[in-house]
Every structure is written in structure tokens, then in C-alpha cells.
């Protein structure tokens, strides 16, 4: 008959408190390093959002665009061949205004519209751009061509949400699919 041997380890003798602390620290470093590596290699997404709202009270079509500030800085720098930064507002604002006009065209009820520049602001990593168009009556049909940031990022996705009264619809723009239209019913 075999005797079962019980092996009893005294953990406090095999691993001193200092060794246990060092092992815990090493494990924590490996976990954080692995998490950081995953984040560093994670797929970055490129997206912009435009909310377009008909404001009947003000008699205007209002545009609010959201971009990642560093994405737009890169695009504007590429357009001009000069390193631009939102820290230098007087240099970047006219370039941003021209970029918006060149890369977003909107036709309302068959007629091209020219958006009036309201301005922009930074909020953390977000760039908010504001534009508007005086419009006495609600639009019935909107056609959009949107190439913003498309030259810069192959995976860029731009979404435009349109709100006219109770009507709310969206368009998505991708590389190769730059235009779309909405009929307001």
C-alpha cells in the first residue's frame, strides 16, 4: 500500500515579502505593458460628424461639424504644405474656412448654397465648426458632396445628420462614395 505524501510548502520561507512584492510588481508591469501595447496597436478610426438643422424660428439652416482636432490639423497642413496648428488661430482659421467650402458642397431644393462662416472652437480633442445659411422656408430636398478628410485618411467616414422639424435622416460618406441626397417628407 502506497502512502500518500503530503508536501507542505511554507510560503513565507520560500518567498520572502520582498520577493512577493517584486513578483506582484513585475506582474502588474506586464499587465499594463500588454494593455498599452494592445491600445497602441488597436485600429484607429477616422470619423467626422455634421449635424444640419433647420431652425424655423431663426429662419436658417445651421451646420455644426465635429472633427478630431489633430486629424484636421494634418489635413490642413497637407493642403497648404505648411505645418499648421490650432494654437495659431489667426493662421489656421482662414485655411479651415476655405477647406470647409472646398470639401463640403450642399444643394438645397436644386440650388447650390453658400454657407456663412460662424466660427470654430476646440473642446479637448474635438474641433467644432459652425456655419449657417439664411433660409426662410424649410428645405424639401438636400444633396451633399462631402470629401472632408478623405484625401488624408483612407478609412475616413463622414456622417451628416439632417433635422427638419420631425424629419431626421442621416447620410454616410466613405472613400469612393462622396455624395448623397435626402428628400424631406
Task: Put the structure in a nutshell.
The protein is an alpha+beta fold.
What does this structure look like?
The longest helix has 25 residues. The protein has 4 helices and 10 strands, in the order H-H-E-E-H-H-E-E-E-E-E-E-E-E. The protein has one domain. A hairpin with a 2-residue loop joins strand 5 and strand 6. The strands form 2 sheets. It has a 6-stranded mixed β-sheet with strand order 5-6-2-1-8-9. Helix 3 crosses helix 4. It is globular and about 45 Å long. The chain has 185 residues and is of the alpha+beta class. The N and C termini lie far apart (89 Å). The N terminus is likely disordered. 30% of the residues lie in helices and 37% in strands.
Main features:
185 residues, alpha+beta, 4-stranded antiparallel sheet, 4 helices, 10 strands, 30% helix, disordered N terminus
Helix-strand blueprint:
Layout: H1 11-14, H2 17-41, E1 47-55, E2 60-68, H3 69-80, H4 89-103, E3 104-108, E4 111-112, E5 116-123, E6 126-134, E7 141-146, E8 157-164, E9 167-173, E10 179-183
Parallel strand pairs: 1-8
Antiparallel strand pairs: 1-2, 2-6, 3-4, 3-7, 5-6, 7-10, 8-9
Helix pairs in contact: 3-4
